[in-house]
Design goal:
With 391 residues, this protein is an alpha/beta fold. 36% of the residues lie in helices and 16% in strands. The protein has 14 helices and 14 strands. The strands form 2 sheets. Strands 1, 2, 3, 4, 5, 6, 7 and 14 form an 8-stranded parallel β-sheet that branches. Strands 10-9-8-11-12-13 form a 6-stranded parallel β-sheet. α4 links the parallel β5 and β6. The chain is globular, with a radius of gyration of 22 Å.
Length: 391
């Protein structure tokens, strides 16, 4: 079936399903276009399932491979299937962490929550990065913003970015980021569970290397010397260290090429990076927004950025001068070793607190609670304008 005919069939189905009453207790969720059970949609789902007032909700998740997630305790559908469009068209609340496509035709009484996929950005996004984004994406993003009823913000600085660059004039929910609630819990049992899932001894110390992708898909920049890194960490912080490497999903098929070595584990396919952060003692990243999530833990974060000049010229400009950030920058393996050896915990934590105050963080470990209350209100509002099925 060619693409035009496929779109015709899909829009015909949507038109039919849009005559079916919306179920005001149904919540439809998706993360990264159905590729995983993770990010903000995961954490609000778990909160709903664990809350006494969440028992009446019908929670539906869309996955590319739903059979992989049959254990979740929620209904699942395959993306782009007949059932997928039925569930989406008849749900009261739709929650995503990425842009929706033109196949989502929001109905009058549906409520669309855009949680995005970061609490704060280092790389410029959306309108701020319009010059380097494809035209088809820009058009899709503008249409998505027009559908949106609520946009999640993790900080005052993020709100300013969204107001300027997101083609959105609606409500911004300044209550923090649901996925970051986990990082406030400091639950040792949770850490042990994750380490067990990774088949790692709980007494091991973990350094997570989690860089972002490059537009040219170059692999040369991912040249961290893992053996040297482990030796430096052991000398500075003591303990036995394991290196977890989580590359961007775009590099999943070639991730094994970059994870060779003793006590090095490839965790690129691990769905939930927040869980990896729970058991991470030290993070090494680059231009990824992950660094701002990890700041909540107060643990050391190093930016390994040997290509900083070319990255800014060829990929994305940055919202911050790197010198403004509290994280420790390194431009080579020699530099990384030197920075680790000279690391000062007290000074680092002071810099973190100053930075979080500067950006006006909203993160307090209770974002899921605030968002659940909003969802509950929306789903229990008076019926108006359209017939609803009773809960």
């Amino acid at each position: 079936m060619n693409s035009k005919l496929k779109d015709f069939v899909i829009f015909a189905l949507i038109s039919i399903f849009n005559y079916i009453p919306i179920k005001r207790n149904k919540i439809f969720l998706m993360s990264y276009y159905g590729s995983q059970f993770g990010c903000n949609p995961k954490y609000i789902t778990e909160y709903i399932l664990g809350h006494e007032d969440g028992e009446g909700f019908d929670v539906v998740w869309a996955f590319n491979n739903p059979e992989t997630y049959s254990h979740l305790g929620v209904r699942t559908v395959r993306t782009m299937s007949l059932r997928y469009f039925y569930e989406m068209c008849t749900s009261k609340v739709i929650i995503t962490n990425y842009r929706t496509t033109t196949h989502f035709k929001k109905r009058k009484n549906q409520y669309y929550i855009q949680t995005w996929h970061s609490s704060l950005r280092l790389k410029q996004i959306e309108k701020d990065a319009e010059a380097v984004l494809p035209n088809h994406y820009i058009e899709m993003a503008k249409k998505d913003s027009a559908k949106c009823d609520l946009l999640i913000s993790g900080s005052r600085y993020s709100t300013e970015i969204f107001r300027r660059s997101f083609w959105y004039k609606g409500e911004i929910f300044e209550k923090g980021t649901p996925r970051n609630d986990l990082l406030f819990q400091r639950d040792e049992r949770k850490r042990k569970e994750i380490m067990q899932r990774l088949r790692l001894h709980p007494n091991l110390k973990v350094v997570l290397y989690a860089p972002t992708f490059r537009k040219d898909n170059s692999l040369d920049v991912y040249d961290v010397d893992y053996k040297r890194l482990r030796n430096s960490l052991q000398e500075k912080f003591s303990g036995d260290w394991v290196v977890l490497v989580r590359l961007h999903p775009h590099l999943q098929n070639i991730s094994r090429e970059l994870t060779d070595g003793e006590n090095v584990m490839n965790v690129t396919t691990y769905d939930d990076i927040q869980e990896l952060l729970v058991c991470t003692d030290i993070l090494i990243s680059d231009y990824s927004s992950l660094i701002f999530d990890f700041a909540i833990t107060g643990r050391p974060c190093f930016l390994y950025i040997p290509d900083v000049d070319s990255y800014i010229k060829q990929d994305r400009e940055l919202y911050f001068d790197l010198e403004e950030l509290p994280f420790i920058t390194a431009y080579s393996n020699d530099d990384l070793e030197k920075r680790i050896n000279s690391f000062q915990q007290i000074a680092y934590r002071n810099d973190l607190q100053k930075f979080l105050h500067k950006v006006g963080t909203f993160e307090a470990g209770n974002a899921c609670d605030f968002l659940f209350k909003r969802i509950y209100e929306v789903c229990h509002e008076e019926k108006r304008g359209e017939a609803y099925e009773a809960v």
